[in-house]
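Fill-in record for ATPase.
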Amino acid sequence: MMQTLEALTRRDETLTSIRGIVHTMKTISAINAVPYERAARSIEAYHRTVRSGLRAFVARTGPIALPQGEPAESIVVVFGSDHGLCGNYNEVLAEKVQAETMPMTAATSGSRVLCVGAQMNDALAGQGLSPESIFLPPASADGIGRLAGSIVTRLDDIAGGEPHNRKVTLAFTQRADHGQNEPVLMPLLPLGQAFLAGLAERPWKSRSLPDYSMPTPALFAALLRSHIFASVFRASAEAMVTENAARLALMQQAEQSVDDRLDEVKGQLRSVRQDDITTELLDVIIGFEALRNKPRRT
């Protein structure tokens, strides 16, 4: 169906405006991902320092003995998005959490879910999961520490000050090979045997033997809390990086789609404009011929 010149002009203006919005969103996503990526790298350096402290603790006191038995309950902390325009970012992670949570619930007396982001809360509700606490995602890289501190405090409140009384899993989306993203569930507590064995097997390389003046339980609790904080911080930063990457990829697809539609509309606009010009020229020629062939009065 041939459209009028006015309708095509309005569509061209609308698509041009939409393309400007999409391009702006793409630029913002690319800019926002950079500070979160730097935060993820910086927390890795802090986490290495914490692990060095744990190795020094093990070298001084011997292997860490943990309580035997399965924790009474399981807690899953899910890191998602608070904004849209990122495709099925939240839904994919929610499906994985639901699939992994069912075995946890069967093995323990209960499973509790803590959620980051309103969009993730909706995605989890669609999978039949009801988060008991919803945290606001960081608005900038400076807010990651605030979020990590709030989550660690909430975990302490749930456990009543005993970190090994609960099983904690961090669910987030991390970067994969070839620019892809993948959802992962990372066990956090209790400390895994592989993690503890790695601390015990790696010798203290310095000639100065580690020592401390704090009570042993207090020092271990402080190191463990720092380890939990660094892990939560990294998961939050990684989630924000992949969220902006998902939004950037989606905006690139949208921009390409809008460009294709704009080319089509502009082609139709040129065709209709040419037809209008041709019609006007034919009217002028027909009018001229009619006046030239009109018989003159004598």
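KEY FINDING: Residues 26-247 form a domain with the Pyruvate Kinase; Chain: A, domain 1 fold (CATH 3.40.1380.10).
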